[in-house]
Amino acid sequence: MADTPHLTRVGGDDPLDFLAIDGLLSDEERQIQQTVRQFVGDRILPEVGRWYEEGTFPARELGPVMGELGLLGMHLEGYGCAGTSGTAYGLACLELEAGDSGLRSFVSVQGSLAMFPIWAYGSEEHKETWLPRMAAGEAIGCFGLTEPDSGSDPGSMRTHAKQDAGGDWVLNGSKMWITNGSIADVAVVWARTDGGVRGFVVPTDTPGFTAHDIHRKASLRASVTSELVFDDLRLPADAVLPGVSGMKGPLSCLNEARFGILFGAIGAGRACYEAALDYAKDRVQFGVPIASFQLTQRKLVEMMVAVQRGTLVALHLGRLKDTGQLTSAQVSFGKMDNVRQALEIAREARGVLGANGITLEYPVIRHMNNLESVYTYEGTNEIHTLVLGQAITGIGAFS
């Protein structure tokens, strides 16, 4: 990184940065965070309530804008990617999810689940074909791992690919709960083969590929979620990712995405806390602002402490990632605790807002509903708990 973090403090206790965490950031990190915050304020917040209500997300419109800002695959090097630090990527995710979890999910899937495996394990042709376009937001990617009957146990996947006598791969099966599925130009699909689990780069205009959107969602509504179906989908021999085999491939991608989530969830929590704080100071009952009531102050304090603590956890894990010391179990720590803390903040904020807390005039119920999905995806809270249990006892509680 070009400059060194330095602690600064300008008098008083800032209710939005009580522990002066901003002073722990480098100038570059701070600039990236502020740039993304402004983008979210200008382009996302005025419209996201409507997108959520309508169940839409303008990916084709926003993709090139985010590409121009360098947000897509931003922590990757080369091929048009920004090459920022992991911490800077995390801070961007924090600000994106302060807008909406669907927005951060789009960026996470694009950069960490679709671009990362091509960047880390793809051939040079894969990289040259896809990464510059994906970094620019001109091509959208998705990641096919979860299936209708294999969520927390992806090793039991049924999707399979068989190589024929001519060398082509023939892919059959389906994937479920796939973000960006129906709008993607390319899918990174994981399938069983005679040689173990392999990843495939699948252009979505390939005959035999279909995507069906999942409707009637009450969570992550400003996000495209799909089922993917592969029916004798034929791919050339070089469609396989040559650099990895086995479950290491998809699990490493999930680890990248979970890193962004542990930052992002705190952004959603922060947005709920700030909405509750502003509301409590303005809402008058019994002749005084409700912020003057002891129980309300307790709620606000608990929210503030959780936001500050979660931000410090995320920042510490970001520093570990940037020095090559971050373990997958530590990522599980951050994903598990920061998401559950953010969900509790959202629920508490909803209570502070009373009946207004259930309307889309305020961001709280939207974040609360979204966080119910974030609590489950990229590893459920229970699975991350067992990962940590194995890490501290040395005994695995699941296979």
UniProtKB/TrEMBL annotation:
Q: Which reaction does it catalyse?
A: glutaryl-CoA + oxidized [electron-transfer flavoprotein] + 2 H(+) = (2E)-butenoyl-CoA + reduced [electron-transfer flavoprotein] + CO2
The pathway to which it is assigned is:
Amino-acid metabolism; tryptophan metabolism; Amino-acid metabolism; lysine degradation
This protein's cofactor list reads:
FAD
Q: Does the keyword Flavoprotein apply?
A: yes
**GO terms for biological process, alphabetical:** fatty acid beta-oxidation using acyl-CoA dehydrogenase; fatty-acyl-CoA biosynthetic process
- Which UniProt key words apply to this protein? FAD, Flavoprotein, Oxidoreductase, Transit peptide
Instruction: Report domain Acyl-CoA dehydrogenase/oxidase N-terminal positions.
Output: 26-138
Cite the EC number: 1.3.8.6
Q: So which domain of life are we looking at?
A: Bacteria
For the keyword Transport, the answer is no
Pfam family of this protein, just one?
Acyl-CoA_dh_1
InterPro entries attached here? Acyl-CoA_DH_CS, Acyl-CoA_Oxase/DH_mid-dom, Acyl-CoA_Oxase/DH_mid-dom_sf, AcylCo_DH-like_C, AcylCo_DH/oxidase_C, AcylCoA_DH/ox_N, AcylCoA_DH/ox_N_sf, AcylCoA_DH/oxidase_NM_dom_sf
Domain Acyl-CoA oxidase/dehydrogenase middle stretches: 142-232
Q: Which family does it belong to?
A: Belongs to the acyl-CoA dehydrogenase family.
* Designated name of the protein: glutaryl-CoA dehydrogenase (ETF)
List, for all copies, the residue spans of the domain called Acyl-CoA dehydrogenase/oxidase C-terminal. 246-392
**What's a Gene Ontology MF term here?**
glutaryl-CoA dehydrogenase activity
Q: Gene3D superfamilies per the record?
A: Acyl-CoA dehydrogenase/oxidase, N-terminal domain, Butyryl-CoA Dehydrogenase, subunit A, domain 2, Butyryl-CoA Dehydrogenase, subunit A, domain 3
Signal peptide residues are none
